[in-house]
Structure formats: C-alpha cells, structure tokens
Amino acid sequence: MTATSTFLSAVDETTTTLTVTTAGINVALPSEQMLSGFTANAANEVFTATEAGTYYIDYKVNVSTPVTMTAKVLLNGTPIAGLTITPTAATSNYSANRIVTINSGDTLQLQLSSHAGVVKLANGTGASLTVIRLA
Q1: Integer distance in angstroms from the first to the last C-alpha of the chain?
Q2: What are the helix (H) ranges across 15-109?
Q3: FRET partner for 62 with CA separation of 20 to 30 A, picked from 71, 73, 88, 101?
Q4: What's the pTM?
Q5: pLDDT tier at 2 (50, 70, 90 boundaries)?
Q6: Rounded Cα gap, residues 42 and 28, in angstroms
Q7: Residue 82: which H helix or E strand, with range?
C-alpha cells in the first residue's frame, strides 16, 4: 500500500473563546498546520482541496463547559451528512468521522452553531480537523 501525500491536519490549541450563534461560526485552526494538497485562508477557517479524491475526515471539538450546540464540517458551505453532531444534552466533547468525495477546489470548514452564547475551547486541543486522501 502506498502512503498518501494529500492531507490536512490543523488544530486550535489557544483556548479560544467563540461567540456561537444559531446561524454558526467557523472555528479557526491556526496551530500545528500540516497541509499537503490543501490551502488555508488567512483566517485559518476555510481549507481548499487542490486534488480530487475520496477522503477520510475526522474532527474533534472540546469545550471547557458542557453546552448544547451543533458541531459540523461544511463542504462548500453545506453540512456533510454524518459529520453533524447535535446532542440532546449538554456535552463538552464533539467528534465525528466519515469518508467523503471531495473535488479539486472544494472547501472545508469546521463550524459551531445552534447555540446563542459564548463557548471556550478546552486547554490543549480545543478543536482539530484531520483530512486524509484515501484514493
């Protein structure tokens, strides 16, 4: 098996405080970026694929105080089925993974929504996004 050379790994380790709205807010992932086959916008919120393929996507969001909100990954501004988590009870940890098809030029964003208030990302890895091209 040949190792892939197209991947994205980005983290927020800064205990960022975010004002989450019902419409949503993108999570910036400025720490420890490893990008091969992806580019990041200046705010480190939107990642653009430069190669089409089948990708494994995994994300985690950890907040310091349990809340009820939605965490999701957007593909070209649309939530990806299976990567949208909306718990019925307050929680501190949100995570999901899925295999999806991505085209060259497609964009990915990690977003929090469906909550009106401030959340603080947890110490250490508050949020992370990992994307690996499988084929």
Answers
A1: 11
A2: none
A3: 101
A4: 0.94
A5: low
A6: 10
A7: strand 78-85
